[in-house]
Amino acid sequence: MTCSKAYGLVLLWELLQWGAFWAGLVLLEFSSAGGLVGLWAFGLLRALLYSFALLLADGRPQPVLARWVSMLCLLPPVFESGRMAIVPAVSGNVIGLVPDPGTVVLAVVSSTVACLAWELGFPDSDCNPGRKKENQKARVQLMRVVRYCRPDIFYLAAAFLFLSLGVICETFIPYYQGKVIDMLGAQFRHNSFSYAIGGMAFVSVGSSLCSGLRGCLFMCSLARLNKRMRHMLFHNLVQQDIPFFEENKSGSLTSRLANDVDKMGRSVALNSNVLLRSFVKLFGMLYLMLGLSWQLTLLSMAEMPLLVLLQKTYNTYIQYLKQLQDCQAHAKELASQAVASVRTVRSFGAEQQELQRYNEALERIHLMNTSSRSVSDVPSGPYVSAQCVTVGIKVAMLFQGRRLISSDQLSIGSLLAFVLFQKDMVSNMRQLVYVFGDMLATVEAADKVLKLLDRKPDQRESGELVPTTLLGRITFHNVTFCYSSRPDSPALKAVTLELRPGKMTALVGPSGGGKSSCVCLLARLYDPMEGQVQLDGHSLHCYKHQYLHQKVALVSQDPVLFSGSIRHNIEYGLQRCTLEKVQEAAKRANVHNFICTLEQGYNTGVGECGDQLSSGQKQCIAIARALVREPQVLILDEATRGMDVNTEHAVKGVLAGSVGQTVLVVAHRLETVEKADHIIFMEDGEVVEQGTHQELMAKKGRYHRLKEELFED
Ligand SMILES: Nc1ncnc2c1ncn2[C@@H]1O[C@H](COP(=O)(O)OP(=O)(O)OP(=O)(O)O)[C@@H](O)[C@H]1O
Predict the structure, then answer these.
(1) What positions belong to coiled-coil segments (predicted)?
(2) Model ipTM?
């Protein structure tokens, strides 16, 4: 059975059923039997019967059909309960098994509109052949974001309660305004007038109070959601492998963390706020409008098809918004890169160039902004036609209203209330359309955030190995490695080498030979494509992450210090570290005396990225940071490059004194290399020759030649 047939059947059955029941019960004067409980029981029974019938007809109920049927069955008891609880005076009707025809019509209209709106925005059924895959994905994403809101359920429940109360109060404002007008026009009765004025004041104050509380609670849960999401995202981000950070620019990642998380939160807290508010208000108003005049209500419904036109325009706007997000992320990345490298920019006099690049990015943002605004704000074809039809409907309504007033079917106050309701209803419907569009846009942001959240690092997970004693024997077995950006040109080709425990090994060779790549593998920044890097006979990935990075410490070519104190930088990454240990490491790195000359000693700030220190001091602090871990394997990648001669000699002395440690030095300077127990010469990603300084010199091979070319400067 096709879906449209199923919908048709349900609707027909619904009408026949109500017609028969209503006529039967009214004829038998039995319509008030059962009360509210009876109405609920009857609704649930109908829902069950429908589910059973749908299962029989189709074998597998369509989700959209199931949603529609449940709303059809349950909305009448919900409406009647709400009416009884909030405005018993307005109803005056007796509740029974069958609600009054107005409520039935309202239930049919509301459930159809709600399901249609949901299906248009986030389709999930096969009934919609034109549905887009993206929209389905958007729905899944949205539901995921909703699930992330679970911890805020109490805040949200309270917010929804205030939302419903506020909207109901707001809906009744025009109703009481109409009543006041009627009182003024008709024979003045003080009590009724006071009642109408009091009612108006009550609903006005109630509406603003509830709206305030609702807004506050929604913002509160939004802030909590943002905090949680940022925490999770950052947690996942720092777990990612290094190639991920090479592929994704830091500007885009921080933009995900700051802007997209915020937009994602908005999709839930703010949009669902507006969405629910509009829905509740729309149906509340429909209810009151039907009570005032069903003819005028039907007339005002004619405006609905126009929303489809508006939806299309709004979808184009959303497309522009998506492009705008990417342009903003790009501009942010350019700005942060220029600011972070301001010294380089200044020293090359490249300010104008950077300005121009940033200006171009701003131009693109401006273009996207203008294009999106021209679609959303400038009157277009669909917009003008929508306005014309709206005016036409208003004129028709006034004529019909005039006719009803002359035939005493409507009072002037009721017509006024109706016009106010109608105006409000149109703006609510538009808001609904916009919110659906906006939800899709924010779901786009959610998509980026969720993709980042879902990303699992390509690198193998660390093992659990934490041996109490470690020799520090490092071996490379046939290691081949490529950077992901250059998969076809290996940086290391079947490299086999050994770093002996307690010995100092030097890696030398021309630039681009693969020395730093060996260091990166040793620090497990990357995993080899082929072969293994082993520590004491076990592959590096077998060791526990924290353990490995405590036992294998690296001082890289350009050590990075973090803004914070010197002490914070030396004990960086360690859980508990005493000041004595920090001082001891600083002494060994020959930087203690310098630190003592500073006014705040170890608590002195180093500035952003250590900018307030010389490069030699930065290197020494980086060495202290490595030494404080008491590593078994110490890697110095050109670590002595930025030091003056005195400091260099002092540090070398310290290193020479590190008995039992495996030391790997990547160096271009002869003094560093000559002292090494073992020298490995690397060129073009391969180990070309190895041995002691004397052996290699005697061999008169590549090392000898390089020494003559470079080391004798
Ligand atoms: N992040 C990277 N992405 C892509 N290729 C890289 C990357 N880092 C290095 N390479 C390439 O890998 C090869 C080996 O580089 P590596 O840095 O290991 O050489 P090196 O011997 O340490 O050079 P230097 O003495 O100049 O530091 C080079 O061809 C280099 O261009």
Answers:
(1) none
(2) 0.96
